[in-house]
Every structure is written in C-alpha cells, then in structure tokens.
Specification:
- 18% of the residues lie in helices and 24% in strands.
- By secondary structure, it is α/β, with parallel strands linked by helices.
- The structure holds iron/sulfur cluster.
- Residues 30, 32-33, 45, 48, 52, 94-96, 121, 138 line the site of iron/sulfur cluster.
C-alpha cells in the first residue's frame, strides 16, 4: 500500500533540472519528523515547510499496487505533450520518499517510459533503478547513500554546513536558502536574509551553486 499526500503536474523549480516538466508524487510521512507541530522542536529536521501527514491533498490517496499508482501518475502527464517522444518524468518526493518507493513502483513507471527522480534526505537506502537522485541532507542525520546526482543543502543549518559535504560523490552542489521571503523585504532584511548569506557563500565557494525555489517565486505548485 502506497500512501500519497498529493500528486500534481508542474515544473521542477530547483536544482540542476529546474524548469523541467514533471509529475510530482509526494508521499506521506518522513523518518526525521512525525509531521506534528508539537514535535517540531525536538525533531531531527525542524524546518519542514510542507504538510507530510495524511493522503488528503490534490490527487492524494492510498494505492494498493505499484501499477495502480503508476497509472495515476501517468494520468497527470499531458496527453497532448509534443513532441510525442518527450520523455515523461516523475519526481518522487515527500515526506521521505524512500520510506515507500520500491523496485516494483520504479519498474511500473519505467514500463510507462518514465524517467524516475527522487528527492531524499539520504538517510535510507535507495532501490535500484532510480535515474536521478537529489539528496538534501538534514542536520546531523546519518547519511547512508554513497552518491547522488545533485546534493541540495538547505542553508544555513548549524549542524549541516556545506563544508561537511563538499567531498560527497555528487555531480552538482546546490545551496537552497532556508525559507525567508526574498521579495517584499526591506533593504536591511534583504542584506541579512538567508538568501544573501547563501549567495555570499556561493561567491566564496564556487563549488556550490545557488538554487532558488523558482516555483514559489512564480506562485506555482
Ligand atoms: S527531511 Fe524533508 S520531508 Fe522530512 S521533515 Fe525534513 S524537510 Fe520535511
């Protein structure tokens, strides 16, 4: 049984594949926070900005089989997409998707010609067959993945500063500023914002690239 919080079709807003159309499948639950506000202060990850409990979001639900979930994902890919050869793309995210993503589901979406990406906190092993791994380490949570395609670090995190990850086996390194609105800010706030700090870090450490949540700037999902 797969528990999905929500699913939607949109553009990837962050990282190396920013701007690419994808079906997002957001699984319920995470292993670093139970999703309840009263537990946030004691959670390993305390800055989650999404609702990770339940199956009540847009197109969310419980799916008994991998084929049923793969079909529901495929129903969101535009039938009029042109050219017809456009590679369909699904991003499994969450919550922590590796609590639920398994080989059966990967095989089921591969059988529908999908390229498969996952956005994970890196603390659980990944099933084989994932085509693109985006890992976003959190605080001092132990990482078990030994490589990823892109490492996206929310910045700043006192217990997870970029120096800790600069030797990790990744093709791309991104800093994603910890949420603070970067628009409608006064000049002083702007100067001290997490975005400004991340920008300054990237200028000093060119291994890292700045990743903005362009989907939020655009006001899309
Ligand atoms: S690891 Fe990700 S999904 Fe889990 S609580 Fe943190 S931000 Fe939310």
């Amino acid at each position: 049984m797969y528990k999905v919080k929500e699913m939607f079709y949109s553009l990837q807003g962050e990282g190396a594949r920013s701007g690419r159309a994808a079906v997002f499948c957001r699984f319920s639950k995470c292993n670093l926070w139970n999703g309840r506000e009263e537990s946030r202060a004691t959670a390993v990850c305390d800055f989650c900005d999404t609702s990770i409990l339940g199956t009540d979001g847009q197109n969310g639900g419980r799916f008994a089989t991998a084929d049923a979930l793969a079909s529901a994902i495929d129903a969101l890919w535009p039938t009029q997409a042109t050219p017809a050869s456009s590679k369909p793309y699904v991003i499994f995210t969450g919550g922590e998707p590796l609590l639920q993503l398994n080989t059966q589901l990967i095989n089921a979406v591969h059988a529908l010609n999908y390229e498969v990406a996952v956005e994970t906190n890196g603390t659980l092993p990944a099933p084989s067959g994932v085509d693109w791994v985006c890992m976003s380490p959190k605080a001092d949570a132990k990482i078990v993945l030994d490589r990823c395609d892109e490492l996206k670090l929310v910045f700043p995190q006192a217990k997870a500063m970029p120096e800790r990850f600069e030797s990790f086996a990744a093709d791309y390194f991104f800093l994603s500023p910890m949420a603070d609105p970067i628009i409608d800010f006064g000049p002083d706030d702007k100067k001290n914002s997490n975005t400004a700090k991340a920008l300054a870090y990237c200028l000093k450490h060119p291994q890292w690239r700045l990743s903005l949540q362009t989907h939020k700037l655009l006001g899309i999902d």
